[in-house]
Amino acid sequence: MNTVTSRVREDFPFRDAHPDRAYLDSAATSQRPRQVIDAEAAFVATDYAAVHRGSSMATGAATLAFENARARVAAFVGAAHDEIVWTENATDAINMVALGMSDAALGLGGADARARFGLGPGDEIVVTEAEHHANLLPWQRLAARTGATLRWVAVDDAGLWSIDDLAAVITARTRVVAFAHVSNVTGYVAPVGDVVALARGVGALTLLDACQSVPHHPVDLTALGVDFAAFSAHKMLGPTGIGALWGRKELLDLLPPARTGGSTITTVTMESAEFLPAPNRFEAGTQPVSQAVGFAAASDYLREIGMPAVAAHEHEMTGLLVDAVAATPGVRLVGVPAGSERGPLVSFIVDGVHAHDVGQFLDDRGITVRTGHHCAQPLHRRLGVAATTRASAYVYTDAADVARFSAALAEVRPFFGADR
């Protein structure tokens, strides 16, 4: 058994509850180790209280845990504690940036915010055709509200794009470039440094969808040079209901808050309000305190394993998944070709069998995978299919899981009579 898997496999109660199931859907939502479950439960049991409100001992203890969690998650991605904003999820984080830019275009936040973030007719927002809807729809709305033009980098027949493709789309009018670090369908790993260089060359901001990268290999957002990034706890062994927006501090302090209310302000009159610096200016209302504690515990757990070890393990498991798909007659690998760098996920098409039927067949045999368009309809439309099946690996995946997947996959086409 792989060293990483042998160290962590017993930490996951899901494995105890379902010993005969191979869970290959971590790209959608990962399982949680006992250490994360226990950390959140302990906080709820002994230190649960409102944060940043009042002066009681209970509030102080809860606030300390809340902000300590922020500092630990920030350190995990190479950030300062005040560069991490708690959000509902990564989708919410991206919307925060797009909605803040929309408000800046209206003059909210003042002249400096409008000059930095305000878009208008003639300005351009650039995405790729491979984006998750979370990194497409907010920019569609921003373009519609401001009169800016949404442009995109087309993908090829494999669903991939290159830095040369991006360079052909970026112009002197480009103001925002938003892209995924790792595609949740094709596994493509974006050349972040090259993208940042192109964007900076025309004065454009960059936003990185880091949902499929931060959980799986070492990521230092500051070193990458992007301006904003989004990632989620539930894809990295943590709880649902919380994600993170990272941004360069000077940008976060200038960006108008997308949501307003309690805990975000310094002064309120009946006519106006002045807002706190980041991150508090963005965290209106009651905060996800216990979720933040769980998020931090998940980052601690991964740090203890070591992200280089996590990446090496997943590289091995992904190679086995790719080999399983490539070795099965009538099954086609989507995206990055075998032997090339990819994220720890494998999407595929089974000739003659709909992806949903493939997923149900595998599920009946104790293998959990994802089916559908994976919130990337434009990409699937370009590929000429309505849906694909996706298997993904994480720290608890082992060779036996992949072998089980491989054996079941080989049975799909004969079961449905598609091999005749």
UniProtKB/TrEMBL annotation:
It catalyses: (sulfur carrier)-H + L-cysteine = (sulfur carrier)-SH + L-alanine. Transmembrane segments: none annotated. It comes from the Bacteria. Residues 23-405 form the Aminotransferase class V domain. The keyword Transferase applies. Keywords: Pyridoxal phosphate, Transferase. GO terms for molecular function: cysteine desulfurase activity. Gene3D superfamilies: Aspartate Aminotransferase, domain 1, Type I PLP-dependent aspartate aminotransferase-like (Major domain). Its cofactor is pyridoxal 5'-phosphate. It is an enzyme of class 2 (transferase). Signal peptide: none annotated. Pfam families: Aminotran_5. Its EC number is 2.8.1.7. CDD domains: SufS_like. The keyword Transmembrane helix does not apply. InterPro entries: Aminotrans_V_dom, Aminotrans_V_PyrdxlP_BS, Cys_dSase_SufS, PyrdxlP-dep_Trfase, PyrdxlP-dep_Trfase_major, PyrdxlP-dep_Trfase_small. Coiled coil: none annotated. Belongs to the class-V pyridoxal-phosphate-dependent aminotransferase family. Csd subfamily. Catalyzes the removal of elemental sulfur and selenium atoms from L-cysteine, L-cystine, L-selenocysteine, and L-selenocystine to produce L-alanine. PANTHER family: CYSTEINE DESULFURASE, CYSTEINE DESULFURASE 1, CHLOROPLASTIC. This is Cysteine desulfurase. It comes from Microbacterium invictum.
